[in-house]
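Blinded run. Sample ID left blank on purpose so nobody reads anything into the name before looking at the predicted structure. Input follows.
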Amino acid sequence: MRQLVYNGQTEDHPVLVTDEDGVRSLRFGTEERQTSIDLSRPWELQLAYTRWMATALLLHPRPQSFLVVGLGGGALPHFLLHHHPDARIDIVEKERLVIELAHGAFLLPHQQEGLRVIHRDAQAFLRSASPSSYHVAFLDIFGPGCMAPVLADPALYRELVACLHPEGVMAVNVWSGERQLYEQVVRAAWEGCAGRLLRMQVKKRSNVILLGFADDISRATLRRARKRSADFRQRYGIDFAPFLTRLRRTNHSSLLERLLFFG
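Blinded prediction complete.
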């Protein structure tokens, strides 16, 4: 049975926090969950698309600095804090209420070494960020039932790429349900990443994870990730093998543009 924990409003949309079957969830006025966290084990990623986003961790040799754009209830930060306790983690969120709920309702630490929560608009932050600062970046910015319009702006991805370490990778959660907007977003990401882009359709979901790279995509990197998938499963508690298989099958051709726009 669903129990209401919080009911409020930002300037743009409703915000609901509910408990159900031991899991606390954040919603922005629709049935779609922005975040779900088991507060007894907050480092476990409950929503499928967040586990697919975590594939980005396999594609950098030694990730130690992370950027999370779009906080929600803090599922990815909890995951990173647990598995990379010595890393630097910067979180950017434009809604003050969302930050307060992440700390208060979803138990994200207020103070922890290496963790920084920044109350700012995503592009404003990226324009002022130091270049080559992050090994892995996660971008997950949604409103009530739709993608944030800024996801269709190539400048967003150019600015994000500029913040990545030369071996860096970004994971972007997008939604294929609005086909026209989805195609605009993919084209913007392709342009902003100068074609260094792969994609993964989340199984049985409308979520698509775009993986953008600061440098040319290395097939050796993908091969290493596949070979070490058992090690990664033990480390992170996620079976990455199906994700890597989907990644290989979706992007098996060198003609990535054809796959992305016409596949």
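Unblinding after everyone has recorded impressions. Residues 254-263 have pLDDT under 50 and may be disordered.
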